[in-house]
Amino acid sequence: MPAVPLIHVTGHRNPDTDSIAAAIGYAELRGRLDPDNTYVPVRLGDLNSQTRWVLQRADATEPEFLPHVMRRVRDVMQEDFYACGVDDAVREVGLTMAQDRLDVVPIVGHDGRLAGVMTERALARRYTRESREASTLVDTPTRISSITAAVSGEQVVGEDTSVAGRVWVFAMATDFPESGIGPGDVVIVGNREDAQLRLIERGVALLLISNGVAPSDDVLRAATEQGTAVVLSPLDSYVCGRMTTLAAPCSALMDAEPLTVRANDLLEDVTEDIKNVHYRAAVAVDRRGHPIGLVTRSDLVNPAAREVLLVDHAEQAQSVPGIEQAHIVEILDHHHIGSIETRVPVRATFDPVGSTSTLVIERFRQAGEEASRPTATVLLGAILSDTVILNSPTTTDRDRAAVRFLAEQVGVDPEEFGREMFESGSDAADASVESLLSRDSKEYETAEGPMCIAQVETAGQILADRLGELREALEQQHGRNGHVLSALMITDILEKHTHLLLAGDVAAAERAFGVQAHDGIIDLPGVMSRKKQVVPPLLGAF
Prior knowledge:
The protein is of the alpha/beta class and 542 residues long.
């Protein structure tokens, strides 16, 4: 049964509450409406304390971390493949390879671990070598039962032991002195009783009587006394000779050092190795060394891209690493149209509301679906977070309607829920400088180069005495990132006020807001929204 296609639903890097909630909510809705695909919400970075509080309050599961969407071995490997055991006969494996046109076959040991691979080259070398050299099982001990099966025969004397001598088709006179046949060898002979008895006297390990000949009682008695096994075959002597060597176990002919990969290896990291190995394939193994897939050169031609659905962003710099290789199935966002490029037309929504989660709950209602209680709770928290409890200038009537609807479903007072969320979910006072600078950080492209703006929301002036420390750290960070402007918004949601800390082209920020910076800091009373009140004027200043 084919696997259900997997689509990752992801917000941006340095995820905020809206990014996580929108991923959770939209994955739930799309999964109901499109059961032919599996939608999985993921995150691209660590959660901030506010988002963790909302998830805990909602009793919702934290999305798994997605490091990248670059193609991996598991995306192209053949999970349904032929493998054989180390004791399986070379002939049986060779027949299957010829019938199914296989270039390579994994060989599995008794413990289930990959022991090697059988390749066309190994089979060809075996036949070429034996075309001029004497056939032998010296290096490939072979069980008599395997030989018996290969020659469609029947063992009439002896135990099922392993033989490891040379293989002869005896066609000379019985007294030929230079036959070279000795103890432990395997000899194919026809209806020559004198030769059969003479070979038994020499102590051969296996006497294979061809052409359907029935040996005499004297021969059977002598073989029993000498300890020589006897096998009867309906095939002629030549075919019996060839089939005997092909009854050798795979372990004797396999490549014991096969090229292996792991399911999560990046294709770009293993492609050259696969192309360079002579059998043009690699076996994917799990942690225990068990084979779980096969990757051949043909699997590397135009591999299917991984599928993603983007929420709350449309900037390549904010998206998952490898997004340029992925197939974007949809974009749902409430920001401006960003730098994401798609290879084919996709459904994209850029709707000017205060929160992407507002768009998600609207889609639930349009589809006649009701979000689960945990999902409804995180969506409520996300809208209240992005609109700063409906006080942000980005807030629309649609956001207010969404909050009323969700608050009624969850059974909470949205004002109290929002204040508790901001107060309980803020750890800014004790947070490190590094974490504050990277919190809810987003990059934007300007005419002069990239610009980075991070935002920290506080309930009160809890960072007032750390502004100088943060400004100095921002300057150091700016020296490393190569941006034209680095900014940090310290937004007090209670006072509705933002301190904008700047590094880089401070003059451009001064032009944007018509305000003089003091020690690299601009005071912006009434400013709370990065998207509507900070980003547009800064982009216009370059």
